[in-house]
Batch of 4 targets.
Target 1
Amino acid sequence: MTKTLRALLGATALLTLSGAAIAETTITVATVNNGDMVRMQGLMDDFNAKHPDIKVEWVTLEENVLRQNVTTDIATGGGQYDVITIGTYEVPIWGKQGWLASLNDLPAEYDVDDLLPAIRGGLTVDGTLYASPFYGESSMVMYRTDLMEAAGLTMPDAPTWADIEKAAAAMTNKDAEIYGVCLRGKAGWGENMAFLTAMSNSFGARWFDEAWNPQFDSPEWKATLDFYLNLMNNYGPPGASNNGFNENLTLFNQGKCGMWIDATVAASFVTGKDSTVADKVGFTLAPDNGLGKRGNWLWAWSLAIPASSQKQDAAKTFINWATNKDYLALVASKEGWANVPPGTRTSLYSNEEYAKVPFAKMTIDSINAADPNAPTVKPVPYVGVQFVAIPEFQGLGTTVGELFSAALAGQSTADEALAAAQAAVAEEMKAAGYIQ
Amino acid sequence: MARAASPRKQLITTLAAWSVALIIFFPVLWMILTSFKTEASAVASPPELLGADWTLDNYAEVWSRSDYPRFFWNSVVISVGSTLLGLAIAIPAAWSMAFVPGKRTKDLLMWMLSTKMMPAVAVMIPIYLLFQWLGIFDTRIGLILALMLMNLPIIIWMLYTYFKEIPGEILEAARMDGASLWNEIVYVLTPMAIPGIASTMLLNVILAWNEAFWTITLTTTKAAPLSAFIASFSAPQGLFYAKLSAASAMAILPILILGWFSQKQLVRGLTFGAVK
């Protein structure tokens, strides 16, 4: 071999090696559009500096579109997405179907034991962690301290539904467009049914008995719906059957709601710059009825890896960065402690700085008050506090949500809505093979 | 001789036309107004107009959070590309159906139209797999093909209707003068059908621009057009209408401008042959 040829071969080998050294893996992260996710995209410089060999591309989609695209991709083994953002509802279903990669082998620095037990429980199937929580939330009562004071009332730390009704009656002043309580009324499994399912837990109701028979004909569901309709008809805002999270947030921020029972994530909004009542807001636990369960839900947006991803190692590196303790410290250093993604780690709530955030304690107390594996007073065959973790629930929840929303709009009675819900759910459960 | 309408009748007709136009345009107008409001103003009940808080923040935030030029360019390439490819196939097809129809031409036309009645979601999985297999998932070429095939029946139908209005004798005369098939289509038929071809082209660009199901399903990061851009501004905490409206306004603005400047051509093409 001539010298020239040897030199050429050597140079080629070197070039190949140097090419390999700077070769980067590109991962596609599919996410929903919310404040914490947008903030993470703004902090990507930190990830890029630590992992120059991994390039992250983002796909931001509407929640339902994301769900559809990701399920199509996983079902066809497409491998288009390497990291996906999914909710607590999907994790048990998808994990069981083998659609998600196990996250049991994340590095020690991830500190899996630091995850809040309630949240971790909702993301684990048969001992395997299938998703890493990015932020967690529950629901709680947000109330106007000035209106309570004017009414001569004090909000208990752990109110009952009777306390809520009493406070709503005292605060309502329809002439001044102040309504005692604002609750979700817009139809949808993630809208009014998230609230009503969580509320029904505190009334001793459940979606199904242990043999998957629907329970809308039970006295507990009747008590739940009667109470909700009376409360909203007497003390709620007009047109409440169209109100979801955003509409109630606007009403509350405009000073038109005495109380609002909704996601803990709303706390930063009602005390933020867009709120006209920011300095007059108090927080307390979601109500109960003395039966051992509160009417609060549990939800976490989490990061998971589809089993079809071809770049699982790089995806795990990203998830470790985005959901470990260092990331929380990074957000705190750049954006302040109030903007740290809440509700995922025990260590965050033992941090003295974070304890100063006004809604920190109520958020953790609310999350701890929910148990997705034992959500109801009576035993149930399903996981989930404000949902039932079965694939059919989205359709069922929306059907029942429409019936209950119509009852709130005065188009049917509570009894009619419950009878129709019982019939619709029974039919669907028969068709799906859960019951004969 | 044309009859002169009475002033009263003219007034009523004008008012009716304006009312219909306003009703049709109102959602777009409301969206544009909402895009300049704060989120609180956008969902205020009763709706605010004069007392609303006006702001440009929504546009600033939408611009800063997304790579708008990339989505825009993808939309341009996909809609124009699918239209041109569709025309290249549809002009000869419509020519043969209009001037040398066979026994089954009418059935073929009906069958083509019937494919538009099938819900897109019914073929989602096969198309998804096909795109994966061909390696054209999340590529502009893939979307050009998909949208071209989706709109081809409409293009052929429209062109067929326009071509039918052109007397076959003119083409025959061209043939007698020794024009080849290519020359007949390019130099005789096409110039006469320009208004029809132009309106077909414009309508198809609009259809492709607004298509949201396939463009969102078959893309992730590289080929995503403005439909995916709009979808990314829908939030799980509820719809943030002001930002969503700003994103929507930015997405429809180019097509609105195109429609405005080509409305004469569009109307001329759509009414081509309507009155004989």
Note: The mean pLDDT of chain A is 90.
Target 2
Amino acid sequence: MIAIVDYGVGNLFSLRCSLQSLGLDTVVTADPKAIRNADRVILPGVGAFGDAIDKLRATGLDQTVLEEAAHGKPLLGICLGMQLLFEKGYEFGEHDGLGLLHGSVVPMQGTIPPELKIPQMGWNALIRKRSHPLLREVKEGDCVYFVHSYYAADCDDSLVATTEYGKELTALVAKDNVMGCQFHPEKSGNVGLKILRAFSTVT
Amino acid sequence: MITKRIIPCLDVRNGRVVKGVNFEGVQDVSDPVELARHYSDEGADELVFYDITASVEGRQLFTDVLRRVAEQIFIPLTVGGGINTVEDFDRVLKCGADKVSVNSGAIRNPALIPEAARKYGSQCVVLSADVKRVEGRFHVFSHGGRIDTGMDALEWIRQGVALGAGEVVLNSIDTDGVKQGFDLEMLNAVTAIVDVPVIASGGAGGVQDFVTLFREAPGVDAGLAASIFHFGEVGIPALKQVLAENGINVRRIG
């Protein structure tokens, strides 16, 4: 069973459907018990860092996620959910993240050439920095779908893949059982489904 | 580097796709789910569903169709047509749409854009504009391109983006249906004044028109078309092959 943590941000319809299309038992839940009973946990998210981490803490589910991660349960953060895994986020002020991964989430603005549009919205290729089970079915040059204005920086110890948008931006991170992708696997066609399937078997 | 997007647009009336011919392996081209799967398998980067239904019953059929597509097709889905209120956004987003495009509804009530952007994020709000030259100026037309609002198109698009639209679909009435290529002049005028993605619509007649589009209007992010895809005149894999051969960065699948 995969638990998708429902803390009131974003539309979880596609994520749930994409996992179900792979034949994976999935529950969208705000119940700590259901999260504890699941084999794997997905932390989704869209919107702003501060708003999202506040909502996650208000539900108390931040503690559940931290405990399950500490127990070694596979955890995948998606998009803003990935960003929340880091120590700090600098979107409308400075916010503490969950601190499961080293690094901070910073704006693209000012760090990429000004002619590039922000957010990065669209399909871009993954650039593998090291091998990882999540990418076992993914080929060099495969594209995934991004929508983001901020990116994770100073995260060399967890970096798995980047994408080129004026500079190399963090696309996929993993450290032990804690994983995260900046892109939306549930909107990335077959490549995204391969990554989600890999997450369902990663140990 | 980010790829240029190719986007088929499906017109849906009472739950069925309005036009199309038979593709190999597609049993029923008027079934939006089958057609969506076909395009997704072929490498479409996004799909636009345009609801041209007028009745309440038709709206219900549309959201049913949308939900069935979103349950099975995992690429970005944009919905347009009949979006007048934040409740309309809510209705289609709940059924799996990722982006919602506003046109006449935003002309009538520009506050719809910031309301929706605040609630769902700018990335979710697409401003669709039907534009035609009138006495040497670009005018915005409403009601499916039938009524000249008299509004200056560049001013309206600039305003729409300032209000929170995260993407612009620019449909040139002048080139629409003519199949002589996209409206490069109009597109370049718009990409010069906004910093959000711009999707070109209206005028695609063949593969070469997309090559010309991305070469001559480099600020354009995506090309949208309906009939050339539905009538099988242009296949997406062949189109992307030619674009790639011309040095245009596109997403390849397989």
Note: Chain A is about 25% helix and 30% strand.
Target 3
Amino acid sequence: MSTSTHADAQPTRYDKWLLKTMNDARARRLHATRGARRRIVVAHVVTTAVGLAGMVGAYAWASPWPLAALLIALLVWVPLTGFLNSMTRGLLELRARVLDERQRAERGEVHARAYRVNSWVMTAALLGFYIAWLAEMSLADLAVPLAATGLAVLTLHRLLPLWIAALRVQDEPEDDEVGEMDEAHEAGAPSA
Amino acid sequence: MSEHVHNRLAVVRAERKVSRQALAEAVGAHYQTIGYIERGQYNPSLDLALRIAAHFRLPVEALFSLEPFRPLTDEVYGTGSDPEASAAAPTTGTTTRTTGRTTA
């Protein structure tokens, strides 16, 4: 007896369009190497941090500069996120119905790792605020740190899987190109 | 329990002149997954292994094995250093019979 799951559902027209977009070959050469992928991830982390700082700054100080930093960071952040999605082939954006078994397993692995890291970060944050409470800091003093930590944890929860997935992508050999016939590898390649 | 599954997918795919993309579409997988399997970086599920074998009209054990495969040339021509192969084909004559060719 078999049970139907979301993964068994037929892809919609939107799924097919998104799958095609995420697998667009035009951006592939821009993140073909591990070094390039790492640089994009680092740039994305930095841009995200600048954007968050701008957001908290706009909340904390009555100055236009934090908002300007936020807007500029956003302009850089959007295409960088596109690169991350392109290098992971939409691993975290596509619905399970258009992913194959390896991709679904990889998505599970990525989420599990991100969950572990985020759990430690939240525990550390909680511990920090507990220590601050022991030091008799007032809630008013903790307003900005609370806002910043809340935003950072939320952002980490949302983006850490994407960063981990991007860092786990492996180089494709030339003969992996779509539609290209390749030479035979040696017989009996052992599994990792 | 061993997690090593050996395969000769790349050899068979090249022999049949099937691209990764074509095979991936035929078996409902991403083309990268075919590459991962060929490079031994991913062990396919039984379901996917059977679909790949069915696509090539081969038994699944012809493509996937828990033991390393002998090179196909050894299996066909019996020229490898495998002791069993040597026992089965210790002479040129046996090798010739294996290939089904006649020599003077």
Note: The first strand of chain B starts at residue 6 and ends at 7.
Target 4
Amino acid sequence: MSALRFAGTTNAEVFTPNERHCLEAIVSRIIPADTNGPGAVEVGCALYIESALRDAYRSQKSAYSAGLAALDSRAIERTGKLFAALDINEQDRILSEFELNTRVGEYQDSAAFFELVRRHTLEGMFGDPLYGGNANFAGWDLIGYPGLRMYVTPELQRMDVAIHRLRLSAKQLMHGSR
Amino acid sequence: MAPVNLPRTDVVLIGLGAAGGLAVLPLARAGLKIVGLEAGGWFRSADHRPDEIRNNIRHWPHAVQKANQEIPTARNGRDGPPLPRPDYHPMMNGVGGTSLHYWGQSWRLMQWDFKVRSETIRRYGVSAIPPGCTVEDWPLSYEELEPYYDKVEYAIGVSGKAGNVQGNISRTGNVFESPRQREYPMPPLRAAGFADHMAEAASRLGWHPYSPPAAINSVPYDKRSACFYHGFCGSGGCPVNAKNSTAVSTIPQAIATGNLKIVPYAHVIAIESDAYGRVTGARYLSDKREYFQPASVVLLAGYTYENTRLLLLSKSKAYPRGLSNNHGQVGLHYMSHTRTGVVGLFSFDLNRWYGTPAQGTALDDWADDNFDHSEVEFIGGGNLLVPMEAKPIEAANMSTFGKAPRWGSSWKAFVRENAARWAPVWAQISTFPFEDRFLDLDPAVKDSLGYPVCRLTVGLKETEERAMRFMQEKAERWLREAGAIATNQLPLFPIGLSTHAYGGTRMGENPERNVVNGWGFSHEAPNLGILGASTMGTSGARNPTLTVQALAWRTADYLIRQWKFIAE
């Protein structure tokens, strides 16, 4: 019935190499790798976004192309380098400008673009790994999500309980495999 | 190509969701032959996996073939700017409709909701009715609907604790509820740590918390499993059939009688009528062919937007302005719940991950006319609800309460510490119809077949804003009493595109101001019945589905009793 197409079913290129580097640079600033664990790039958020744009988010591909180009042109205007080549402080400054829409210029939708990428980055980080992100359940570990269970006992709904973490994707859960 | 003429049937019913999927049971049991036209297909429990991206983020892309082609547009006032149009429809297609994945909250309305106008005038004077408000008393009372609420609760299965059985008040139920003839068929959903914590806080404030009723099995019911509390119930279908959508409760029973034939993937494009103003059947597309299903009676049971839209699209000699619209009432009295909320941050883990939203704690102390409105300058009020269930993306995408940026390493550290330490209190507020808020056909935007989509003309009223702010203040007090160290008010959500959409084919005795009579049949086309919240004239402060289902059963019962007069 529900003929789902999963991420990664085609290899069509969504991004140019430059666009891909730019997106990886953005998502790694939204959720950086640090002492609290792997970041967005490491868990596959950029791959999640790219495969979603091939499929369920097809209609948002043009917003990405325009937004990534705007980010790169802002970076070049300021430093002569592409966004991905900047140091992280410079990247954060430009991303903050986009987030807050502080510089209205050639690209009007910078805040909307920032929100779009942030939203999709969170989906890749904290969504079910079956969509290509949240590698090794690192996103769920970060926030302490105890994992998918088909049956939850009453004890597991008390406030003071320590819950054993399960690491299953929805597909594994439904098919009973581990 | 001319439509294929199908053999005549007693009843053609359009839409097998919460309303239509319920009405088929009494109709089929009475021996009427029903053809049910449904825009979507069938789902099985195995289709319902716990998948936040598919269910909550992408809104069931596998199930909105028709609905997503006709997402309504909206504008703020008659001359106001268009509002942003979402890229998904709030409801879905499928046998069982959105009851497949709703929260299952199954409240009854209160006596007051049926008599808002007269009760308000009696208690506060006519000036308490907001200017431009078109609210009327319902043509039936709570007492007349009570037997049907009862039938529905037992037919689909509702879990809950009565607060008022024939006047006997129980403080473990909702003390504000209107009298019921008996207990719920199942005990309430399981207690949960955080829900209990919030109930204790409410009790300390002198309020009256209770476990909200839900069409979810707390114990095995009707050969279906009890709830597994897996935590993907909100907008999720049930993998163990413990959520009592019509697809697993009433529809299979109706099919078993042999009197219901369901046509899935049937896209209805018009209801036909003859020169005398009687409806003759429904025209639909299926697999690119057009069919005409003649019937003695047509029951229109789509969602609120589609009910209005299909009537307006069904023009004929007898109804030049759209079916049943010779009084110009189709589309009027539109409203949806205004709602808002407050989120609270705690210094300890709440463990809200699992469960189901309807498993939380609710309050009606500030709903309806349960408190004195002399000082507040609005009528009605809100139900407060703390739901269980926190899915991971939703949990991580939390408010930062002004304590952290929204991204970067310090955000990451913040959500690591706090994703399990926040909770919302939702306020769902009674909404009333106004003369300048309505549905019609969009003059420019069309669906994929070239038919105009439904357009909402909406706007926030001052009384509504006051009610929402009042409820935010109560929600905040509740969270603080429970130990919240920070709170953050959620936006005020005005009426708009909603899963709780009311009006458009309002029910009332006066045909000058209403589309259907007190039994749910058209004032103009005598063999056309309309089911759904589109017939409701007030919203109450709670989810519509159980009332929609009680009304649907009552309309079906009336049709059975009056068959000769209506159908022949």
Note: The first strand of chain B starts at residue 4 and ends at 5.
